[in-house]
UniProtKB/TrEMBL annotation:
It comes from Prochlorococcus marinus (strain MIT 9515). This is Putative sodium-dependent bicarbonate transporter. It holds the Pfam family Sbt_1. The chain crosses the membrane at residues 6-27, 39-55, 67-88, 100-119, 131-152, 173-193, 205-226, 238-262, 268-286, 298-322. The keyword Transmembrane helix applies.
Amino acid sequence: MEVNPIIQNVLAPPVLFFLIGAISIFFKSDLEIPAPLPKLFSLYLLLAIGFKGGIEIQKSGFTDQVLPTLGAAILMSLIIPIIGFFILRYKFDVFNSAAIAAAYGSISAVTFISAESFLESQSIDFDGFMVGALALMESPAIIVGLLIVKFAGPQDRPNARKMHLSSILHESFLNGSVYLLLSSLVVGFLTAFSNPAAITKMEPFTGQLFYGAECFFLLDMGIVAAQRLPRLKNAGSFLIGFAIFMPLFNSLIGVFVAKFLSLGPGNALLFVVLCASASYLAVPAAMRMTVPEAKSSYYISTTLGLTFPFNIVLGIPIYMSLVNKIIPITPL
């Protein structure tokens, strides 16, 4: 593995702002981001990447590479939580195993954005249709997690906690982040199809502001991740090991799937990052509401306090190295 890409990644402004946020907690700085701003920037990032992704999908069309890639993305988000569930069952009950497994089967949009920034810093091309894979991978893992609880969990749950198919689908596709991402994807697609001139008008908002907003959002994420770290003591060594092992294991599966799909290095890295990332927004929101028996400190502290910083600081360059080894660039 080359060291240089790791150093370059650590010195990228978004990662540095993340580290600055985390360090502020360790040194007890009074740095504080007002509560509404991180939510606003989170919604902005989802809107921007969804809009740009919709434009790129319209431009590229549903080609022989786009459709299999999107299909493989959905398949991975169905398989990964099942694998995670069986691993976690060695130590945890059905509720906690299903909730944690769903978090690792879903994705992190900010990790995906960080991977895009890494590719741009390395001058490696990638296609916008990968945002479609991002949008499609968030919900299936939630569905799998809730179905596991429904069929593998105790059948004597109170009626108020018994889940029906309609409520499962509602939580999976209509939670705020998924809804905004999918909606923005459709808006971008329709705009590129019917009114391309409007894309230019949106460019200052969805393009030029994006990088700065990402840095600011990661500053807040660094603060939140550092605040979550002490709670990992309660998670135990098994779950801490799982938080590092699972992304690496999923990345290995992802890179072989990317090779099977004949994805180029840039698209392959984004696919691998989607497989290796974990949700700390959509899945926790759904699980808190529908599976209150699961401890939120488990699936939030591990995904946000450990897996997320591992991925954006070390994971992305490691996955790029893995892609370069298993999917070497074919000379023209």
